[in-house]
Amino acid sequence: MRIGEVAERAGVSRRSLRYYEQQGLIEVRRSPSGQRLYEEDHVRRVRLIQTFYAAKLTSATIAELIPCMERSPSRVVAQRAQVVMERERSRLRVTMQELSAAVAALDGLIDATAAHQPGLRSSRDSDPGELITVDSVEGEDLGRVRLRSAT
């Protein structure tokens, strides 16, 4: 595959793919004329890298995990990566707890606000993803508001 196809299928820019290569996150073969030649596995790898970036892992941390993305890392390499993965999992769990607390606090504020505003419904009264219409709040036109699930 060429860079454009991988970029499209993985949902990233061509520039991102070149950056991942520069950072050692992916290895790409080259044609005799120097064009990058990608394989199906690159799409999977790039999506995984994107997931890690979304979880706020750095390029350096992701690079430490690369050996475990390979088919069979050595025991020593796998043990080092295991430590990194466990550390990041713990960090993500703390972040998830913090986000859950923030969602709960927002739910409380929404419920309290809805109780004092005619025409507003509690966040718990609506289905996640349901499109509701609110005319206005204190003269502010809100138009349509999409409620999203926190789960």
From TrEMBL:
Alphabetized UniProt keyword annotations = DNA-binding
Q: Where is the HTH merR-type domain?
A: 1-68
- SUPFAM superfamilies (UniProt xref): Putative DNA-binding domain
Please identify the protein, giving its name as recorded.
Answer: MerR family transcriptional regulator
